[in-house]
């Protein structure tokens, strides 16, 4: 007797596969990370992230127009700060005419509908490469959240639609939400990096911004006292729920591929949009393997991107956004 059900019937050709496909990607799914630098006419490729650039604001303008034309509608901005402007407290981050603030204005000027999110953290501004202020051999939590709140207000004043705190200090979402409300920015959103793990996959990003932690008395060169231990699962849910209680509009899991279990678990647990960040090291691995001819770039990329959505992500921050949308 033949079996009554043959699952292969629904896989027998591309048309039927299309008809029954459960997960689809569209340009609406992506958040495009972009790196900006001071200067003019600059578009330098990041060595460990082929196809990704540090751009001066004139080139940022061009990039934004191109992204919008392709149907991409949201960017996440990171600023590379010159060494002479770095200190322990991230003073430059509060400069109303700083690079990040001008970058936000540049985007809004050339494409008002492009959704602008800004990275809120001290590391690109810190002489120590840490996301917090260093005090007595510690990363000072509450002093740091005060600066992050001021930084968020400054980004909102420049025109940011969302601020995206990526630091993992305790209580920062509440400090930021209160500061934004106090200053009248009731419609400025917060996308919280709520379950951000202490990951070695951030390596290429730290090259891009020259923001790797440096040796400083008694403080380890890693970020394990604030970013999460990658062995932990329940903690991710607690962190995420606290951020929502403190006023986060969107929550995020980061990195992506190693943490799909966390994405699914959080998706099942919360009712706000869930973002995932496919980070620099994940991007670099695919690029490197493809360069060697060991993996097929486009099909591996798509398999990973679909996996994020299947796991439950509503938003994917990815350096592959342009590559992917070209194939859709
Ligand atoms: C800064 C920040 C990092 C990333 C995003 N924001 C680096 C870090 O925490 O050390 C990593 C992004 C990537 O690797 O693509 N707080």
Architecture overview:
The chain is an alpha/beta fold and 328 residues long. It contains eleven helices and twelve strands. The strands form two sheets. It has an eight-stranded parallel beta barrel with strand order 1-4-5-8-9-10-11-12, surrounded by seven helices. A two-stranded antiparallel ribbon has the order 6-7. Strand 2 and strand 3 form a beta hairpin. Helix 2 crosses helix 3, helix 3 (99-110) packs parallel to helix 4 and helix 4 (141-158) crosses helix 5 (172-182). The longest helix has 18 residues, at 141-158. The chain is globular. The termini are far apart. It binds ligand PBG.
List the keywords.
8-stranded parallel beta barrel, binds ligand PBG, 38% helix, 12 strands, alpha/beta, 11 helices
| Approximate shape | globular
Number of strands: 12
Radius of gyration: 20 Å
Bound molecules: ligand PBG
Structural class: alpha/beta
Low-confidence region ranges: none
Instruction: State the helicity in percent bands.
Output: 25-40%
Widest β-sheet, arrangement of strands: 1-4-5-8-9-10-11-12
- Which oligomeric state applies? single chain
Q: Report the major sheet.
A: 8 strands, parallel, barrel
* Number of helices, where a helix is a run of at least 4 consecutive DSSP H or I residues: 11
Order of helices and strands: HEEEHEHEEEHEHEHHEHEHHEH
Measured by DSSP, the beta-strand proportion falls in 15-25%
What is the first-to-last residue Cα distance?
A: 42 Å
Mean pLDDT: 97
Give a short overview:
Helix content is 38%, strand content 19%. With 328 residues, the protein is α/β, with parallel strands linked by helices. Strand 10, helix 8 (260-269) and strand 11 form a beta-alpha-beta unit.
